[in-house]
DNA sequence: TTAGGGTTAG
């Protein structure tokens, strides 16, 4: 009988099998009956916390952390810092900086914090767009000796705030403290210099890292430099740099290297060279990813205005097992609308779910704006219906143009319905509707509408619209 | 635990 008992080992296996996080939580809280009180292993805590963190079920995750805190205060193995790092990162990805900071000091993890946890927190805060000074305060307060990774994150924060000089100062500081820079340090610095347009300094850094620090440039360093060259309009120099990479046995070319080159080549009218790049990738066994395809879609739609070519790219993506995302489709929708081809855009949007991608708020806004720009307000009205149903609001400009358009149609009933629907998604701009209303409505209707809209603004009268 | 590439609107 004892052998059949459901142990923490069995629970861990069951948690691994259960893909639905809510079901996994129920399983964790109510393990099948066992003769003795159930003892949770650290592994079970680890599994459920990671699952809840990934699913962003934070309140549930916090309650499990509290249980862990009270259970780990007794003797036994301590929760690993790696788990703490998962929790902190999850809060960073969810843009919850205060929660990330609280997690860092959570009593469920009684062990001493190392640079690893500190670095994870710094990175989470950087994800939340925290300014460099906040990160420096965190470093100071933690009292943990920084390592190269700490400095790399701080340098990136400096660059993100637009100060390459500060990034360089941090580099000097790490050298003074005897911390050896890594290839990531140089990758960060080169990218920062390129973003700031300081290409010469970036190329100097590529030399210095080898000569003075014995660190070889990798694909990250090369890709940043190639992008920098393209932005200066020197695509050929970027292509030469790619050849330099190919000539080095220790370097592996990847999809990112090629993605960097695609749009710049389209921009200068060299789409034939892009075909050559794709062939080259194939020859090297590099699979084109979404970044490469999306760059091609933008090239065909915006530079070439060749929608046959763009749709062919979509087909290639499907054939090659690369799933087009909303951005891929939005690029096409935007291009079509810009040329007044809103019918084609509308057909594509309708077909998106069948193709495995649901239109997002950007898709609808572009289609809506495209129809308004073409003066097709009744068509736009249909799109608005779908948007409101999904809780999407049109852009401020789009809503205004639309209301003005409906006003010109002179259909009072439609105008009333439009204003109500716009109000539902908070897209009512007062200047727009007041102007529209004053043009077409008689005083009594105007007064009634105004009342309705006031009550809508006070979030109390949605039923009046139906 | 840290760095590179692409793209839609506003």
Characterization of the model:
This is Pentacotripeptide-repeat region of PRORP domain-containing protein. PPR repeats lie at residues 147-181, 182-212, 218-248, 254-288, 289-324, 325-359, 360-394. Keywords: Repeat, Transit peptide. It comes from Sorghum bicolor. It holds the Pfam family PPR_1. There is one protein chain. By secondary structure, the protein is mainly alpha-helical. It has a domain at 351-456. Helices cover 70% and strands 0% of the residues. It has 26 helices and no strands. The chain binds one DNA strand of 10 nucleotides through helix 5, helix 7, helix 9, helix 11 and helix 13.
Any idea what the radius of gyration is? 28 Å
Low-confidence stretches: 459-464
Q: Helicity level, as a percent range?
A: over 70%
**Termini distance?**
64 Å
Overall pLDDT: 89
Protein name: Pentacotripeptide-repeat region of PRORP domain-containing protein
Keywords: Repeat, Transit peptide
GO molecular function: mRNA binding
PPR repeats: 147-181, 182-212, 218-248, 254-288, 289-324, 325-359, 360-394
């Amino acid at each position: 009988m004892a052998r059949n008992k459901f142990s923490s080992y069995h629970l861990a296996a069951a948690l691994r099998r259960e893909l639905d996080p809510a079901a996994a939580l129920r399983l964790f809280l109510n393990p099948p009956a066992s003769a003795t009180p159930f003892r949770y292993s650290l592994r079970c805590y680890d599994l459920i916390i990671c699952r809840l963190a990934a699913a962003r079920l934070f309140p549930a995750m916090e309650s499990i952390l509290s249980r862990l805190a009270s259970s780990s205060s007794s003797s036994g193995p301590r929760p690993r810092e790696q788990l703490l790092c998962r929790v902190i990162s999850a809060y960073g990805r969810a843009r919850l900086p205060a929660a990330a900071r609280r997690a860092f000091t959570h009593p469920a993890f009684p062990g001493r914090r190392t640079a690893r946890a500190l670095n994870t927190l710094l990175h989470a805060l950087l994800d939340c767009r925290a300014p460099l000074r906040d990160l420096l305060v965190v470093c100071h307060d933690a009292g943990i000796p920084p390592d190269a990774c700490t400095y790399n994150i701080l340098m990136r924060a400096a660059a993100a705030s637009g100060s390459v000089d500060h990034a360089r100062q941090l580099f000097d500081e790490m050298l003074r403290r005897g911390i050896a820079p890594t290839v990531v340090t140089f990758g960060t610095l080169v990218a920062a210099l390129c973003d700031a347009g300081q290409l010469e300094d970036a190329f100097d850094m590529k030399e210095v890292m080898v000569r003075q620090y014995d660190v070889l440039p990798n694909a990250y360093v090369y890709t940043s430099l190639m992008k920098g060259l393209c932005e200066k309009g020197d695509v050929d120099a970027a292509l030469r740099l790619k050849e330099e990479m190919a000539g080095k046995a220790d370097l592996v070319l990847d999809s990112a290297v090629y993605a960097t080159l695609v749009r710049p080549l389209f921009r200068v009218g060299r789409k034939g060279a892009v075909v050559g790049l794709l062939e080259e990738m194939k020859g090297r066994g590099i699979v084109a990813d979404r970044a490469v395809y999306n760059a091609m879609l933008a090239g065909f739609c915006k530079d070439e205005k060749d929608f046959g070519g763009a749709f062919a790219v979509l087909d290639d993506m499907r054939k090659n097992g690369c799933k087009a995302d909303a951005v891929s489709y939005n690029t096409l929708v935007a291009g079509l609308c810009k040329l007044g081809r809103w019918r084609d855009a509308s057909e594509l949007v309708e077909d998106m779910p069948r193709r495995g991608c649901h239109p997002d708020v950007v898709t609808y806004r572009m289609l809506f704006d495209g129809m308004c720009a073409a003066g097709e307000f009744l068509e736009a009205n249909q799109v608005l219906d779908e948007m409101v149903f999904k809780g999407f609001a049109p852009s401020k400009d789009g809503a205004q143009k639309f209301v003005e358009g409906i006003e010109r149609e002179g259909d009072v009933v439609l105008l009333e319905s439009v204003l109500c629907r716009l109000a539902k998604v908070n897209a009512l701009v007062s200047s727009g509707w007041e102007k529209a209303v004053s043009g077409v409505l008689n005083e009594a209707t105007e007064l009634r509408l105004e009342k309705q809209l006031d009550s809508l603004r006070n979030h109390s009268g949605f039923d009046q619209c139906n």
